[in-house]
Amino acid sequence: MAPPGTSSAGAASRDENEAFLLAGLRRGEAAAFERLVRDTTPRLLAIARRMLPNEDDALDAVQEGYLAAFKGLPSFDGNSRLSTWLHRIVVNACLMKLRSRRRRPERSIEDILPKFKEDGHSWEPGSAWRNPSESLEQAELSAKILEAIDELPENYRIVLVLRDIQGLDTAETGVIVGLSENAVKTRLHRARQALRELVDGRALGKDGGND
After folding, report:
1. Is residue 19 included in any domain, yes or no?
2. Which DSSP helix (H) or strand (E) runs through 161?
3. Which residue from 146, 159, 148 is spatially nearest to 187, judged by alpha carbons?
4. What is the model's pTM?
């Protein structure tokens, strides 16, 4: 067990380091910019790759995010962590690319979720969440899950990626996407439901509604 106060001391140290880094960034110090890029690129690029299927687009989104952040430093108020602010900027850059390159109409979340009668029962028999060893090899299932994630509406996909793939907590996800914690929880729940419907459809050999 960690000694009392260790957690708060660690948080204080991180805050102090971030304040030092931010001061260097605002002074235009090359070393501060290099450190920021080195420390944050892996996670930012991981998020961009999950949101954008094309590697070049993901790299461009991260680069555009850094450029926007550097230009926006004077307006950064410090109310959130610097890394959280950067996440939000890169997510927005990814969204702009998705919107500009979308070639087919986005499906509504209501079209994906199962339909229910007034008494709460489903109109269609639901399929169980299958054991991969029974119906699909693990690699095939993983591929189908990633395909299904790409098919989710973007505002649901982002929350799912940030929470379930990147492992951010509810509060930090809310800051990045501009939602309350309750709204994040609701959107995440619906995204997981929709993802399950899409993956189950692929496991049954259906095409999820697309040609």
Report:
1. yes
2. none
3. 159
4. 0.59
* Secondary structure of residue 117 in the 3-state scheme: coil
pLDDT at 37 over 70: yes
In a domain, 195, yes or no: yes
Coil, helix or strand for 122? strand
Are 129 and 163 part of one and the same domain? Answer: yes
Q: Are 54 and 128 within one domain? A: no
Q: For residue 97, give every residue at least 6 positions away whose Cβ sits within 8 Å of its Cβ, in sequence order, or none.
A: 52, 57, 60, 61
pLDDT confidence tier of residue 127, bands split at 50, 70 and 90: very low
- Rounded mean pLDDT, 36-57: 89
**pLDDT for 112-122, tens place per residue?**
665 544 444 44
DSSP 19-86: HHHHHHHHTT-HHHHHHHHHHHHHHHHHHHHHH-SSHHHHHHHHHHHHHHHHHHGGG--SSS-HHHHH
- Higher-pLDDT residue of 81, 112: 81
